[in-house]
Design goal:
By secondary structure, the chain is mainly α. 57% of the residues lie in helices and 6% in strands.
Length: 367
Amino acid sequence: MSDDQEYVHGGRERLPERERRRFPGISSRAYEHPADRSALVALRKLSGFDTVFKALSGMLPERSLRLLFLSDSVRVGELQFPRLHAMLLDACAVLDLPKVPPMYVTQDPRPNAMCVGLDEPVIVVTTGLVELLDEEEMRAAVGHEVGHALSGHAVYRTILLFLTELAVKVAWIPLGGMAVTAIVTALREWFRKSELSADRAGLLVGQDPQASMRGLMKVAGGNHLHEMNVDAFLAQAEEYERGGDLRDSVLKIMNVLPRSHPFTTVRAAELKKWSESRDHQRIMDGHYARREDDKDTSVTDSFRESANHYAESVRASKDPLMGLVRDIAGGAGDLGGRLFGRGAPKGGGAKDGGPKGGQERDDTPDR
């Protein structure tokens, strides 16, 4: 057999051909992106979220959802999609997930995967994803979903799905439509951040950074690997971050708001940065947060870590909007000129540098 998974055959355990490190007792805190944790805390503090959460937790047809997958998808196991089954077992072993979640393959040409469920997580992958990715890329994708399961993301992901798809039918909630919209927006913001955490989990499972990058690139560009290049793909992320002016920064925010996932180039760049970080290397060396210590985790420390992350992100970012934030923090002047793409007047005066009437009217729509 050529499977590079660990499984029992003929009463004897078969070891992987390429040995991967395992992380006994690893806590999801070890790989969770600071923005993921802070966004989830903010979500839980959102007015009305507790009411919606409790109401939907008791009413969502989770059993119906499970029956739907059971009746209209293919359950992964030893006799169906056995290679995916082996990957799932291996991913759960690497991250030491106590209970292997059921996994289904559903017919859908769009490459996608999700981890849903209120009581117990269920992993679903589409045929589009299975057909798109090679074995190592798929291993990272499976690890990504197992990371969602270990982090407990499935509950909030399920609520997001139902609120998004059934928004009209939840009008009876006393909070009103605006409040529900606010909760959906906050859920989307958190879920985008949670994807960055799950990408890290996928890397810990696959332990092949190039495969993780290729998988994201192929999700963006399709199964034309010979026509694509990982370094060029990452260069797109660099151009996306630093390019344009403040108007482009606002457009970036508007473009991402309706999405459940971050843009793929951004995900690839974030993952590459983490793969080369000291934090990742420490995990690979066996030094990581453990579940047994979760109960002693300080919320204050988590907030401090998130605050430090955002401060460092602002300092390092090449985005024009982040540059403006730095300037405001530093007391820089002529913010009006920065907002409308004009440089500061030379010589410090407004005598010759002030905008003329026509220019002022032309700039107004750009606000």
